[in-house]
Amino acid sequence: MTRNIMAILRGVEPDHAVAIAAALIDAGITIIEVPLNSPEPLVSIRRMAATHGEQARIGAGTVLTPDQVSEVAAAGGTFVVSPNMEPEVIRATGRHGLTSYPGVMTPTECFSALAAGADALKLFPGEIIGPAGLKAMRAVLPGDVPVWAVGGVSDGTLSDWFAAGARGVGVGSALFKPGDTAETVAAKARLFVARYDEVTA
């Protein structure tokens, strides 16, 4: 079972990445993002992909340029997440056969991203747009477009996001903060997964 929870490991260090990924996978989270503004992010992605690539999807966040897309692909990443909607990044992601999650905030950006070939949309920052904003945009977006809420998502807001039409969520500090041990991440992840399963049952 693949849950539509993307764990965002901003600030993770390569020496801890594999163990933290294992803790997430054991808890039931199998989509793991390492933002490129983390320490040696490509090393973390490469190590996690080599160790856990058959059990989880490993990718990169804060991807801003086509060259970075190439680096993520070379490291074994399978998806690319951006905070913005840059058509060249979306197209480069498609050329490398990776899944594209560009950041969008308005209907104009949503449709531009889809026209460029985005596979899914990252509604960001979620805490500003809110479930009400997503619900309004859902009225005009194609029904089969996956929209993921990212930013300010917690176990307390999950039901609101899914009720508004989210297909998935990206979760950062509610699952991982720099300095967290694998055991700490495992405990957070188990609680989050239990709430997700309740909301999506």
Write the layout of secondary structure elements.
Layout: E1 5-8, H1 14-27, E2 31-35, H2 41-52, E3 57-61, H3 66-74, E4 79-81, H4 87-95, E5 99-101, E6 103-104, H5 107-116, E7 121-123, H6 126-138, E8 147-150, H7 158-164, E9 168-171, H8 182-200
Parallel strand pairs: 1-2, 1-9, 2-3, 4-5, 6-7, 7-8, 8-9
InterPro entries: Aldlse_KDPG_KHG, Aldolase_TIM
Family: Belongs to the KHG/KDPG aldolase family.
GO molecular function: lyase activity
Question: Would you summarize the structure shown here?
Answer:
Pathway: Carbohydrate acid metabolism. The chain is of the alpha/beta class.
Commentary on this structure:
One of its GO terms (molecular function) is lyase activity. Homotrimer. It is a single chain. The protein has 201 residues and is of the alpha/beta class. The protein has a single domain (5-200), classed as Aldolase class I (TIM Barrel), CATH 3.20.20.70. The protein has helices spanning 14-27, 41-52, 66-74, 87-95, 107-116, 126-138, 158-164, 182-200; strands spanning 5-8, 31-35, 57-61, 79-81, 99-101, 103-104, 121-123, 147-150, 168-171. The strands form 2 sheets. A 7-stranded parallel beta sheet has the order 3-2-1-9-8-7-6. Strands 4-5 form a two-stranded parallel sheet. The model has no long low-confidence stretch (mean pLDDT 97).
List key phrases describing it.
201 residues, 2-dehydro-3-deoxy-6-phosphogalactonate aldolase, TIM Barrel, lyase activity, alpha/beta, carbohydrate metabolism, 7-stranded parallel beta sheet
Number of strands: 9
Number of domains: 1
Shape: globular
Q: Order of strands across the biggest sheet? A: 3-2-1-9-8-7-6
Which regions contain 5 or more consecutive residues with pLDDT less than 50? Answer: none
The CATH homologous superfamily is called Aldolase class I
Q: In angstroms, what separates the terminal alpha carbons?
A: 13 Å
* Count of separate DSSP helical elements: 8
Rg is 16 Å
Overall pLDDT metric: 97
CATH class: Alpha Beta
Report the major sheet: 7 strands, parallel
| String of helices and strands | EHEHEHEHEEHEHEHEH
Name the structural class: alpha/beta
CATH topology: TIM Barrel
State the helicity in percent bands. Answer: 40-55%
CATH architecture level-2 label: Alpha-Beta Barrel
Strand content range: 15-25%
